[in-house]
Amino acid sequence: MKKDFLIYKLHFTTPLHLGDARDDYSISLKSVSSDTMYAALTASLAKIGKAIPPNGDLGFTISSLFPFYQKDTKSKTVLFFPRPYKKININIEDPLVNAKMIKRIAWLDVDYFNKVINNEDIFLEHASLNTEYLTDKVIDEKFITSDVSPRVKVPRDYSVIKDATPFYMDRIYFKNYSGLYFIVSGDVNLLNTALDILQYEGIGTDRNVGNGQFIYDTDHIVIDLPIEKDTQFALSLSMFIPESKKQLKTMLTGENVGYDLARRGGWITTPPFNTYRKNAIYAFTHGSVFSKKMVNTVEIMGKIVDLSPDKEDVVDVGHSIWRNGKSFFVPIVV
């Protein structure tokens, strides 16, 4: 079943750094998690005085942000999806291709993604697999580049006198008109308002010096979703926080389940509480595959949690600090 989805494409006008859970500035990620983007959108709305709903839900759900290649404004976009945590049936006639090269694949273009979620075999006669992007389209395989430069870290707590610490910052750049995109489901009115602010605020680290700024436009993507009755597995395209232990136990049943976990937390960005950390929670990453009978072609599952520090023991920020664990799920055959 072919289903059309609305997507937002971010074309970056300045470099950006996307931190990992280890806060290792010398390495930048190449994608933005859905909960990180949702938090940035929420903060942008708060800055212009927009009332945030009491439950932190802005009325829409987004996927995580994935890379796309686009040579210029008139060229066709090549959109990539994360490789699901499942076995991919790749048949290659080229004897020079080995298992390590196949394992390196991290991103699938739409055509190959459709084959994977439908559990179809992928036949490649002469595959160029010295890259993490699997596509038969003509692209610049180095459309995302990085540059490591020295920086100086200033202590967050200004009341303590400490020497500045040197470190290295890895910033990524997108060639041509390439960038990151996300799928959205729901009412996009608040999303549009937030993006109009966020594009100038920037995303990622070092926004105060102009990093992570972008322009954006909208487009559509067609995914060939499995039409088999009683599809027994679901693929998460966002960060996912289960609604209950009962739901989690059911979704982890079966040997074909595959997933990864990431610790979600970080620093509070509201002045003057920048020296305090949020509470932390673990979430399942995009690409995770769960045991779940899909009633519809697309389902939204998960919950939004408040990571505000404990008021009695730490600090009262004065507002909730939401972490969105609602995920965009599509069916997958394994």
Question: What's the quick description here?
Answer:
By secondary structure, the protein is α+β, with helices and mostly antiparallel strands. It contains five helices and 20 strands. Strands 1, 2, 3, 4, 6, 8, 11 and 12 form an eight-stranded mixed β-sheet that branches.
What keywords describe this structure?
334 residues; alpha+beta; 8-stranded mixed β-sheet; 4-stranded antiparallel β-sheet; 20 strands; 31% strand
Secondary-structure element string: EHEEEEHEHEEEEEHEEHEEEEEEE
The shape, in one word, is globular
Terminal CA distance reads: 17 Å
Could you tell me the strand content as a percent range?
A: 25-35%
Would you kindly provide a written description of the structure presented here, covering whatever features stand out?
Strands 1, 2, 3, 4, 6, 8, 11 and 12 form an 8-stranded mixed beta sheet that branches. A 4-stranded antiparallel beta sheet has the order 16-13-20-17, with no helix packed on it. It has 5 helices and 20 strands. The chain has one domain (2-332). The chain has helices at 34-47, 99-103, 110-117, 189-201, 245-251, and strands at 2-12, 60-62, 66-69, 78-82, 90-92, 107-109, 122-124, 133-134, 144-153, 165-174, 179-186, 214-224, 233-236, 261-264, 281-284, 289-291, 299-301, 304-306, 322-324, 327-332. It is α+β, with helices and mostly antiparallel strands. The two termini are 17 Å apart. Helix content is 14%, strand content 31%. The chain is globular, with a radius of gyration of 20 Å. Helix 1 crosses helix 4 (189-201).
